[in-house]
Amino acid sequence: MKAPLLKNIESQVLSVTIQELREPHFDPNWHFHPHYQLFTVLEGTGTRLIGDSIQPFEPGDTVFLGPDIPHLWRSDAHYFEPNHDLTTHGIVLYFQEDFLGKAFFNLPEMHAIDQFLKESKRGIEFRGEARQRVRTELLGLTQADGFERIVRLLALLNELAHSAEGVPITSYGYENNYKVSETERMQKVHTYVLQHFKEEIRLVEVASLAGMSEAAFCRYFKTRANKTFTDFVNEIRIGHACKLLQEDRWSVSQTAYESGFDTLSNFNRLFKKVTNQTPREYRKAYTGKA
Length: 290
What we know:
By secondary structure, this protein is of the alpha+beta class.
């Protein structure tokens, strides 16, 4: 099934769109759109892909994205199994930069928000108390409309613009180099890796999915994703390992093999490269257990 990379989110009535999402799993299609987006996860776990960033997500995950940043919240595999009783829940808000007129955010009084919108072109993840503030406000905005919705949104943007709890998501200088015509190709690659990362992934098979030679695919992927295909696969695997270490049900060696690594030494080396911590340090920081 083809999935449009360019997602169309338009309302003929409202300038600010807010949706409460309750589904068996989040939208599995990797996409981008010309809107600013504020999203918080209330229920569900999986892997979050934003630009060139790959991170696990769980309830509380809260991000603000500028226009045209490719993104995907891919629910864990068990959310796609038949007859499961799991559900995902999130709230997302969309608006375009000119929803209050082309010059509104150029006003002196809007300087902080204007700067915040510029910084969001890398995506911003919010942590700490800011997460709870966003969750509370988004829940309130689902019940607001008209003038109240606009005023409350501006107040929230102003608060986030002054928050010290926002962290850039993509790497410095990241740009979206994807074209709409590449939708099906990249969707196939992402889906395949997210479904098979626990197994050996052969480059020849993935290149074939993309309809390219191995050498051409490697060049293409690095140009578009700002990283090699091998690094992409390893980051998916490390993200899964992070979730297992947070659950604290597996030993480090079990976590390594369950995440698709052939050797413990390779797992330890790559884990520290990606997270700047050893697996044991990461588990201790998250659970308090050595």
